[in-house]
# Entry
Amino acid sequence: MSRGEVIVRFDKVSFSFGIKKPVLDEADFSVRRGTKTTFMGQNGAGKSTIFSLITKVNVPESGNIFISQGLSIATARQVIPRDEMDVTVRDFFQKAFPKTVYDIDPRIDAVLEVVNLHAKHEKLIRAFSGGQQARLLLAYALIQDPDLLLLDEPTNNLDKDGIAHLTKFLVDYKKTCIVISHDAAFLNAFTDGVLYLDVFTQKVEQYVGNYNDVVADISIRIEKENRKNAQLAKEIQENKDKSNFFANKGGQMRLVAKRMREKAEELEEEIVDVRREDKTIRSFTIPSQGELSGELLEITSFLTIKNHKPIERKKKIVLRKNQHLLLSGPNGIGKSTLLESLASGKAKGTKIADGVRIGYYRQDFSNLDFEKTVYEELASVMDKLFEDQLRSTAAGFLITGELVNTKIGSLSEGQKGLVAFARLVLQRPGLLIFDEPTNHMNFRHLPVLAKALDEYQGAMILVSHVPEFVKQIRIDDILDLEK
# Structure
């Protein structure tokens, strides 16, 4: 097997989920052995679907997908399915193989070492934090030792050390890898080619270089297309003006006028469709619950996890209206557990003022009802249903047309995140709790999301491992669970 040979090729591949959800339209691209390729595109464009076509979970409607004979493929998924949450670490990894592997324990230890995670093999998956689950997902793919490794948003939930560890692994990785990610700094460290799924044309554009190179290439291309169209528009107008002038002269001049009109029509056919950029969500505000004053939340003690054991810590934190608290600490220390207990009102050592409405953005979206449609989920948090308000809010988060009537469980992870934000806007909470709100999000949306959090006038608690995002938000206090 020679390095550089084409191991995956899409040849005029078309695929859609029903009539109203086209994903690919005669798409062409190829992947060579030993390369590290990034897959980019808007939330919901269908990047994860392309992974499912490569692994033959889905089959194309037309066109051909060539996979090199004998090529082994493994996918590190975005999230652990709900039905796998109550299995042990050992059983979780056993599912990676078609037959029982009797010496699996040393293999598990070896891949957990690679992802920098130490875990007992009898421990249940749901007992791990979001960041630890992200490492388990990567280890699940690695234990299969595939020729082609597919990584779907692998940095989600990882802390700074986790991302650094994963980056070094990919830089040193000798086999072929395709990564779906919105994390520019992470991608630039190892990418040597980019596949860009255009949500408007349903084509895949292929670029050489890293993420920054692609952004520059696209900008130059758009500028050229706009310049060419401007020149053509000028020539078209000149020919139309001359045509009108000669048409009024009568006689032989009418033939000249006809030629000028035909020339204008020919030039109009040369106008190119300028490459459209991913849409960005509209600027928005999360309204805070009115008529609240005084202390909305008081924390006097909380639990953290050390050496797999809960430890009680004491510290007084008070949050009033328009105060923002950042929770920090490494993966597995108990940040998400603390947020969940606060959101449920069951956190020991904390007191939430009576009547405070809590808006909770969970990193796994499990507080959304996956069986409800987007419309039903958004309507469920409104005091009084105003159809226009619901649809206008949803449209601001790019949830339009049939998407509003789609079940939550059928959406991409990024689209679920946008629904969760729309839900908070309609809910009007007094206390906002955010657990990793940048996960799965198109990088274009992040400044808009940061601005909304920065301007929120209720009390807010935030967990995020993305420093560039946090820097854009006013933080009044930091609670470091490690210290």
